[in-house]
Amino acid sequence: xxxxxxxxxxxxxxxxxxxxxxxxxxxxxxxxxxxxxxxxxxxxxxxxxxxxxxxxxxxxxxxxxxxxxxxxxxxxxxxxxxxxxxxxxxxxxxxxxxxxxxxx
Length: 104
Known about the structure:
One of its GO terms (molecular function) is DNA binding. It comes from Paludibacterium denitrificans. This is LacI family transcriptional regulator. InterPro entries: Lambda_DNA-bd_dom_sf (IPR010982). The protein folds into 2 domains: 1-55, no CATH class; 57-104, no CATH class. The chain starts with a helix and ends in a 10-residue tail after the last helix. It has a two-stranded antiparallel sheet with strand order 1-2. It contains 6 helices and 2 strands; from the N terminus they run ααααββαα. The chain is elongated, with a radius of gyration of 16 Å. A hairpin with a 6-residue loop joins β1 (57-59) and β2 (66-68). It is mainly α.
């Protein structure tokens, strides 16, 4: 991913405010504030992972849709949609995509 997770977090806070972003991430406003100030006492690995999953956006190469990494991950790790030919084509393309986690 080209954007740094802290930049993504800063952008989201600038657009929406700390409280809504903290709520979306499942963290307190205080935690978000401390992370942004570089004063968070704990490891930021979990915060980074959550920011990338919830706030980072990717464009699907198959259909051009803008989606969160969480939505991308959900589709790529789902079972093959054998009941619908277009969805199956999308799923197959997804399995070759650079954003695909393949259920990891």
